[in-house]
């Protein structure tokens, strides 16, 4: 069964304190791995798509990396506005409905 | 680009009434739309997948007669919660997907449904 596990469940950091969020996955064949940001009371906002092991993508203070078993979202020198829930999702190669499976997310809180 | 608009953002109604939620893709054609449900501090749970002009495909455990989905055009899908009860109270989110390989889903801002 395809599965996505995110850790930690919650993370509190001081402003400027870099860290990484983990997304471990098991899927029959990976078509794509997605990172989203979700603010309270809002829908998820797309951040990155990764397709193959070794791939990296960056956007401002965020960098996503991918291996055959997991993905990391690295946050460098975070600011309070980076506080949000970060969701990881995977899409299986053989899913003809283009469904994605979400992890439970990591709630990130950056203290000023 | 890739904006999805969802309305209403918040609705409160009495038990037994039906509620319709609209999901529109504003600047792209969504060949597929998805409806999710999210409980507090939980992840998004897929309820159903709809392709334009076709019947929706519901996930196991989701009552299709309870949650009516219509995807009449490439820019509009609706979810109707029929005869809503307090246990249907939740945060409902839609997403749209272009029919282009490897494009991500783009999400609306959700609808907070409270049934009294």
Write structural notes for this entry.
The complex is a heterodimer of chains A (112) and B (116). By secondary structure, chain A is an all-beta fold. In chain A, 0% of the residues lie in helices and 58% in strands. Chain A is built from no helices and 11 strands. In chain A, strand 9 (84-92) and strand 10 form a beta hairpin. The termini of chain A are far apart. Chain B is mainly β and 116 residues long. Helices cover 0% and strands 52% of the residues of chain B. Chain B has no helices and 11 strands. Chain B has strands at 4-7, 10-13, 19-25, 32-38, 44-51, 57-58, 67-73, 76-81, 90-97, 106-107, 111-115. In chain B, strands 2, 4, 5, 6, 9, 10 and 11 form a 7-stranded mixed sheet that branches. Chain B has a 4-stranded antiparallel sheet with strand order 1-3-8-7, with no helix packed on it. The mean pLDDT of chain B is 92. The chains are: A mainly beta (112), B mainly beta (116).
Give me the secondary-structure topology.
The complex is a heterodimer of chains A (112) and B (116).
Chain A: E1 3-7, E2 10-14, E3 19-26, E4 30-38, E5 45-50, E6 56-59, E7 62-66, E8 70-75, E9 84-92, E10 101-102, E11 106-111
Parallel strand pairs in A: 2-11
Antiparallel strand pairs in A: 1-3, 3-8, 4-5, 4-9, 6-7, 7-8, 9-10, 9-11
Chain B: E1 4-7, E2 10-13, E3 19-25, E4 32-38, E5 44-51, E6 57-58, E7 67-73, E8 76-81, E9 90-97, E10 106-107, E11 111-115
Could you estimate the helical fraction of the residues of chain B in percent? under 10%
Shape of chain A: globular
Strand residue percentage of chain A: over 45%
Radius of gyration of chain A: 14 Å
Give the quaternary arrangement of the chains. heterodimer
The proportion of strand residues of chain B reads: over 45%
